[in-house]
Design goal:
The complex is a heterodimer of chains A (about 300) and B (about 300). By secondary structure, chain A is an alpha/beta fold. In chain A, about 40% of the residues lie in helices and about 10% in strands. Chain B folds into two domains: about 1-45, no CATH class; about 45-305, TIM Barrel. Chain B has helices at about 5-10, 30-35, 70-75, 95-110, 130-140, 160-170, 200-205, 225-230, 245-250, 280-290, 295-305; strands spanning about 50-55, 80-85, 115-120, 145, 175, 210-215, 235-240, 270. In chain B, strands 1-2-3-4-5-6-7-8 form an eight-stranded parallel sheet. Classes of the chains: A alpha/beta (about 300), B alpha/beta (about 300). At the A-B interface, helix 3 and helix 10 of A face helix 10 of B.
Chain lengths: ~300, ~300
Amino acid sequence: MLADRESAQLTLKMNAREFFINPTDYGLPTRDELVAYRIWDNHFHGFASAKPIEQYERNNFFVERMGIERSIAQEVGGTLERPFAPYPFDAEILKILERDKDRLSGRTPIDPGYPEESCAKIEKWIRNGPCIGIKYLGSAINGITCSHPNNDPIMRLAAELDVHVYVHTWLKVGGTPRRPGGDNGPSESTPMDLAKLAQRFPQVPLICGHSGGDWELGVRAIRPYRNLLLEFAGSDPHSGMVEYAIRELGVERLVWGGHGPSRSYATEIGKVLDADISKADRMKIFGGNLRRICASIFRKKGMRIAL
Amino acid sequence: MKPIHRRSFLKSSLLSAAAVSLPNQPPMATQNAARSASVAASSQAPGIIDTNVNLFSWPFRALKYGATKALVAKLKKHRVIEAWAGSFEALLAKDMSGVNSRLAAECREHARGFLIPFGSVNLAWPDWEEDVRRCHEVHQMPGIRIYPGYQPFDLDHPGMQRLVRMTAERGLILQVVFGMEDPRVHHPMISVGPVTFAPLLRAVESTPNANVELLHFSGSVRGEDSNRFTAQTNVFLDISRLEGNGAVARLTGSIQGLPSARLPLERIVFGSHAPYFPVETAILKLIESPLDAQQLQAIMQGNARRLLPRA
């Protein structure tokens, strides 16, 4: 049974569409204008919680308030910590995916340390289930990153199903001597790892999560590989970052994510609004590019989406 | 300061939803009238006092709005009416007197009365007390901004208590910067130490009349320190580092049921961390959070104006 919407909602006295300042007065888009951007949130952690249903329902206030058209949940079928273990909330999440199918989709997390289990999960949750993409987690400890040969059967299956693959990437500075990526976890992929994978599987659309953490270096690492898109989500907002990425990659290769509720939609939307670009280009980043690489799987699932 | 009347504030608001039950909320008829008047009343929308910007060059990247003229234009575009400016030069420089002189001159030249210079002292350098004196007496700055971590000291430095006392005696605001960027993306050549919160608490508690503001502070404080920070100090906090959907409303307690530290509304001020962060981000946080007119007015300018009254 789905969680009671009333009890799961926030305790507040304001409607989600009620504002006491006019964004236009502050050089910002109104909610209607945000809606017109057709924002697809590539990076949604609504179910990443000990109380996933409650958190999801509560976060809907902000989805509504900020005019998000569709959210792609990063953890459908298991969790990022235990992607293959039975998850007691799977059934409820499936019901929510059906109930909210007009605004919610999901990726299923896999771990290339276990390629057979990963492929089985893709069969269950994508070919025979509701998910529309594959999520590589970054928290495993087996030392297998996305550049390892273990990934090849996973990529072949992704190509067969014509689905995109999201890879968590970071470049955490550290180690001895200090270097970008030197403080990454044992299985945490770098943008350079992902570039190697993209080179082997040019037919699979891949998303470089978190802009590689360090966006200036992440962009450089993925630049040569046209099947690699860069995601703005889950890192600090730096003025100028989107324009830099457009200059080096082209606007067609950028996607936007909210990373809520642990990050603010405000933080992530601000990155794109900072860029002096056309409305058409903003629409590509906010959702158009993601819809393009998702079109095939939505079509296969009988869901019609306007590109 | 010209007071902002509730009615004129609401006239400039975007009201698009059903009835609400905010305290002192005008009736729905007023809201409907306000909706139709939203464009005409735009000029009455309250301006923003941005308590956290920096001038000059960020040492590791050319920033989009790094030039002062461009930054001022950008801030004004977003209805910022006053910006408290530190200097990126203060992070690494040894000649703090030169840093502060250039900052004062830059503010005067580009936007007198709009850019308010906050000079810096480095407790690790000798005779920093003279820099406090010059900031106050020579440059007539209203406050001091320190960058522990980049400046090679932590808040347990023996000079910290004296700095808090000196600024209080001179009626200066002391801004303490808790970070400039995510340490995970620091340039490998630098090693910026963490900034520990507890020693600042001790210094502030022993100087109750100190005016202290935390800049780019996450709001994440451990239990006992959090209680002391909230109940036993009058320290202000800018919103530039708050993260999570509805973070500002969580901090004020407007939202129940989501985890957050709490701070009285009258101690929360606007800060953008521009030009490193987009100024849009901080303003969007105010829009994202369900805040009513009084709360917005307090955060956007009222609390900062109380901290630094217009001369």
